[in-house]
Design brief:
Bound molecules: guanosine-5'-monophosphate
Strand content: 15-25%
Helix content: 40-55%
Strand order of the largest sheet: 2-7-1-8-9
Shape: globular
Distance between the termini: 14 Å
Number of strands: 9
Structural class: alpha/beta
Radius of gyration: 16 Å
Length: 188
């Protein structure tokens, strides 16, 4: 039996990772996180092979040359992120459902590729101002990168209509249960 694909996309700072981790921790759904590859440096506490496969620029380029990606994007200038074919294949063939945390363009592309085998969910911040506050209080990025992320978020919010479902992350607890409910419905 093959598993299904759940795509979660959102502008950075919308609480997407928190929502995904909460659902994975509950463990009620047979879900496995697809670990992406990136050439961005690890943040404090991030581990290779857990949060991402952290690759050098050259290693990332080699994976592109070998056609190893389902999709990849230059999400921020010079920073590449990609979904590895072997990662998705392994999880699906083992019969588990896959959860992908990818940027909006990647989300739209993966949905096109997998069609009815995939459900795409867009997590929307309550507002751009709120998003900036969240990024500032998270404290993981410099002021310059916060600006880049906010700019990018504005562009990304324009993609929401291309997703199967949209969930506004106004209250975190409600967003978690809404996303979980959508997943349960889809996996039935
Ligand atoms: P971060 O640097 O905050 O971990 O991730 C930045 C952005 O890259 C997020 O929007 C995240 O969803 C996206 N991202 C992570 N992995 C992938 C991937 O494999 N493909 C694409 N297209 N985007 C990804």
């Amino acid at each position: 039996m093959n598993g299904k694909i759940i795509i979660i996309s959102a502008p950075s700072g919308c609480g997407k990772s928190t929502i995904i981790n909460a659902i994975l921790e509950k463990g009620e759904l047979d879900l496995q996180f697809s670990i992406s590859a990136t050439n961005r440096p690890p943040r404090e506490g991030e581990k290779d092979g857990v949060n991402y496969y952290f690759l050098s620029d050259e290693e990332f380029r080699n994976e592109i040359d070998q056609d190893a990606f389902v999709e990849y994007e230059e999400v921020y200038p010079g920073r590449f992120y990609g979904t590895l074919k072997r990662e998705v294949r392994r999880i699906v063939e083992e019969g588990h459902n896959v959860i992908l945390d990818i940027d909006v363009k990647g989300g739209v592309n993966v949905k096109k590729l997998y069609g009815s085998e995939a459900m795409s969910i867009f997590i929307m911040p309550p507002s751009v101002g709120e998003l900036r506050n969240r990024l500032e209080s998270r404290g993981t990025e410099t002021a310059e990168w916060i600006e880049k992320r906010v700019e990018r978020a504005e562009l990304e919010m324009g993609y929401a209509s291309q997703f199967d479902r949209t969930v506004v992350n106004d209250s975190l607890a409600e967003a978690i249960s809404e996303v979980e409910m959508l997943m349960k419905e889809f996996m039935k």
